[in-house]
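This part of the workshop introduces the protein records we will be handling. A record pairs a protein's sequence with a compact description of its fold. As an example, a complete record with its sequence and its structure tokens follows.

_____
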Amino acid sequence: MRTKISFVAALLVLSVNVALAQFEIPKDFTPLFNGKDFTGWNIEPDLGAWHVEDGRIICKGEPKEPYLILTNKEYENFELYADFKMSENCNSGILLSQLDRGWARESYVGFEIQVSDDAGKATRLNSSCGAVYNALIPIANPVKPNGHWNRYYIIMDWPVLKVWLNGTVVQDVNLEEHDETRFKLRKGYIGLQNHGKYVEYKNVCIKELPSKEKVTDLFNGKDLMGWVKLGDANWSVSNGEIVATGGDGWLVSEKELENYELRVFAGKYENGGTSGIYYNWNGEKDPGFKTEFLDWGLNNKMDKKYLLTQIINSRKESSVRNNGVLIQSNKFHNKLKKGKVAIFHSGNDGLVKIPKISMKDLSLSETAK
């Protein structure tokens, strides 16, 4: 599948030999960085890891917060320019489709276009410059040596991702065709990474493209409308989050669901029990499948504020991803499985918080066939 390449993109490919310093914001693009300060960016908690100097965003490479600075605005589909200059052995990245800091593992649930000091290396990895980190190896290595400016031009127009590095294509993929990318989040903040190495960015600008994804919120942030309490757990809403304490109990959706991708953000703060989610739930005697609130992607240790659990329930199978990592798969032998969703609180756990529950209908998607 191919996306329509703008005239700006064609000019970029034809202008490889034009000095990177001769950059003008293209027509219809909006600067994400004003060259003077961090207006439009969230850099809290600002402990001195980043500063602005002479039209450049500079990461000092110190192990201080924030490890990721984020745009204040969320984006889904877009064209993006960003110039970067690395230090020796630099490891950084431009992150796409990001959540608030502390919500799941950033490079696993969203995208990280890798920035790495790889000039001249023959072997290309999924951690090389131009890679989609931990997912897709770049198809070329045109990065310049550290100390020189490089330019990324990125088109994200789901399911198409195209990336040019210094005028050379390094990614040209249909994201739906790769298990490592097809269930990554499609909308979120854009971020620049502090990975403990000095790096500079400039000329960061964006052109938004039409949105495509339709996601329905199953929790309104105010009350438990659409949900039914069962058992002894205490369920309430506080500060826009579902809060569970007490004994064993379920919070069950009023509606049956089928052919969906369910996204649940949850935090468990006093471990010891088996709190989690039942799906294809048809009562306590037929509870369906279960996945627990554990961070399987990070050695089962909950070191994030919230984890992302994605449940993909299609006509032939279901699967569960925790922080972007596949942890469960079930075959249905061509029998349609459906049921309610039941969030379970174990009496052996303490506080559980759930700020967001949403669902994407897969009835018309390739996943549901």
